[in-house]
Amino acid sequence: MNIGIIGTGNIATYLLEQINVNHLAKGKITAVFGRNQEVGQRLSEQFQVDFHTDIQAFLETPLDIVVEAATVEAAGLYVKDVVTHQKDLVVSSIGVFKDVVFLDEVKALAGSNRTHIFLPSGAIGGLDVLQSAKAAGGLERVQITTRKSPQSLGIEADEEKVIFEGSAFEAVENFPKNVNVALVLAIAGIGVEKTKVRVIVDPAIERNTHTIEAEGDFGRMQLQVENKPMPNNPKTSLLAALSILAVLQNKDRALRIGN
Ligand SMILES: NC(=O)C1=CN([C@@H]2O[C@H](COP(=O)(O)OP(=O)(O)OC[C@H]3O[C@@H](n4cnc5c(N)ncnc54)[C@H](OP(=O)(O)O)[C@@H]3O)[C@@H](O)[C@H]2O)C=CC1
Ligand SMILES: O=C([O-])CC(=O)C(=O)O
């Protein structure tokens, strides 16, 4: 499997290390697309990958799957191109799909190009429960409370404070690098308007903590994940990078676990 990566940051570097050096997935990252020539050159030498600043040239290389690990904005620019070039796609910046029409367009393109789109569970879990819970309708309420340090949120604060309360749609507009988890939750569950999000800044906390609550005909779920932030980017939890690695490890397996 030839893997391409969009982005030259923390997750991209983590995947290069785990796949090209530690061989933790089948195949190899053969090409990276980015806009930072200096960093791209360094990654190219360190991990023996081609570096491209031209998206068409990147997508014309023989890739089986492309992992977006950049930003919501970059995902908006490039995900359709990836699918129309008939590559499977893994999206990290799931906030790009707050626009439901855009998500439907990308899904339709994937259908007509016979490709697959993978949305990793990222820094959370419980998506299996939500999807089962709504299989026959009847999922009523979904909420996520994200608690992060000022450093992880990239803001200053000297006391615990609720800094946002609203829909998943509004949350992405306010914190595009911190609430992609709310979007995958919304897509798996009851949508971007009905999924409620609270963001709390907490100077006393060291882990990126997400608490998910859901209720419906199935009963009730509460799940809390206390994530270690990544050293190179404390906004991002290690679990988010691991979940992309797991998608790449599992994508062609005969045995599927969870719905
Ligand atoms: N689903 C989930 O649970 C999670 C999702 N995420 C998503 O994953 C993304 C990546 O995370 P992480 O690697 O930690 O973030 P980083 O900020 O470390 O890396 C993002 C990289 O993207 C590059 N980039 C930005 N804009 C563009 C562009 N237009 N074209 C090409 N490259 C671009 C930046 O490089 P430069 O600016 O130098 O060009 C930067 O190095 C986050 O932005 C977030 O959207 C993160 C955490 C959890
Ligand atoms: O990594 C995390 O804890 C969550 C995150 O940043 C995101 O969802 O964008």
From TrEMBL:
Q: Which residues form the active site?
A: H210
A biological-process GO annotation: NAD+ biosynthetic process
Give the record's pathway: Cofactor biosynthesis; NAD(+) biosynthesis; iminoaspartate from L-aspartate (dehydrogenase route): step 1/1
Q: Where is the Aspartate/homoserine dehydrogenase NAD-binding domain?
A: 7-120
Kindly state which reaction or reactions the protein catalyses. L-aspartate + NADP(+) + H2O = oxaloacetate + NH4(+) + NADPH + H(+); L-aspartate + NAD(+) + H2O = oxaloacetate + NH4(+) + NADH + H(+)
UniProt-listed Pfam families:
Asp_DH_C, NAD_binding_3
Q: Any idea of its EC number?
A: 1.4.1.21
Another remark in the UniProt entry says:
The iminoaspartate product is unstable in aqueous solution and can decompose to oxaloacetate and ammonia.
Membership in a protein family: Belongs to the L-aspartate dehydrogenase family.
What name does this protein carry?
Answer: L-aspartate dehydrogenase
Native organism is Planococcus koreensis
- The organism's taxonomic lineage, starting at the top: Bacteria, Bacillati, Bacillota, Bacilli, Bacillales
